[in-house]
Amino acid sequence: MAVALPMLSACSYLDVIPPEQPGLDDTMDDADAVRNFLYSCYSAVEGSGYMEDLSTDELVMSDMIGSANQKIAWNQLTSSSTDDYGWNKYYNAIGQCHLFQEELAEATPLGVTDEMKAEYNAQADFLIAYYHFKLLSRYGPIPVIDRFMPADTPKEEMPGRSHFDYVVNFICNKLDNAAKLMAPDRNSSEWGLATSTICYALKARVLLYAASDLWNGGFPETWWRNTNYETPGYGYELVSHTYSREKWEKALEACDYAIKWAESEGGNSLLKLENMPARAANITYPYIPGKEGLTDADKDPMDGDFKDYVMLMSLLLQSTPAEGNREYIWGENPYNEIDTYSYLPLNIMQRSGTWVTGYSLISPTLYIIEHFYTENGELPALDDDFPTSDEWFTSAGIAEHPDIIKLCTGREPRFYAWLGFDGGEYSSMIKDGQSLFLNMKSSSAQGRNPQSNRNYSVSGFLTKKHIEPDLSFTQSGTDANTGYPVPLIRLAELYLNRAECYAELDMTDEALADLNEIRTRAGVRELEASDITDDMTIVDWVRNERCIELFQEGHRYYDVRRWMLAPELLGEGAREGLNVMEKYDPTFEEFNKRVTIDQPFTWDDRMYLLPVYADEVYSNPQMIQAPGY
Question: Is 535:286 a contact under the CB 8 Å cutoff?
Answer without folding.
Answer: no
